């Protein structure tokens, strides 16, 4: 059973940068395609970014593209989300998710329900 633990959240000022981490255990990290989601207060959870097994491919929520970068370090079983120019609207609980794709996957998944493994989330609060 894969377990995911996020860290790196906190209270930051608008305009700051922040890097979130997600450490995976209990499985083979390179088998996993991974993603970040977030849920702002009072709103539905939304897709942020996803990447393939080695970080060679990534896809982003178009509203966030340019301000965030997803990456992974397979030697450390860790995925990252770097966010720049943070805005109060980025305030949310950020979740890490993972799944084992079928052979020859054609696309990166963007729906929360398509990910079998999910972390507990880390809170990011951006003050103005």
What attributes characterize this protein structure?
single chain, 128 residues, mainly beta, seven-stranded mixed β-sheet, four-stranded antiparallel β-sheet, globular
| Major β-sheet annotation | 7 strands, mixed
Rg over CA atoms = 14 Å
Q: State the secondary-structure class.
A: mainly beta
Strand content: over 45%
> What is the typical, i.e. mean, pLDDT?
96
Q: Report the helical percentage.
A: under 10%
**SSE series:** EEEEEEEEEEE
Number of helices: 0
What is the straight-line distance between the termini?
40 Å
Question: Can you give a write-up of this model?
Answer:
The protein is mainly β. Helices cover 0% and strands 48% of the residues. It contains no helices and 11 strands. Strands 2, 4, 5, 6, 9, 10 and 11 form a 7-stranded mixed β-sheet that branches. It has a 4-stranded antiparallel β-sheet with strand order 1-3-8-7, with no helix packed on it. Strand 7 (68-73) and strand 8 (78-83) form a beta hairpin. It is globular.
Short description:
The protein has 128 residues and is mostly beta strands. The chain is 0% helix and 48% strand.
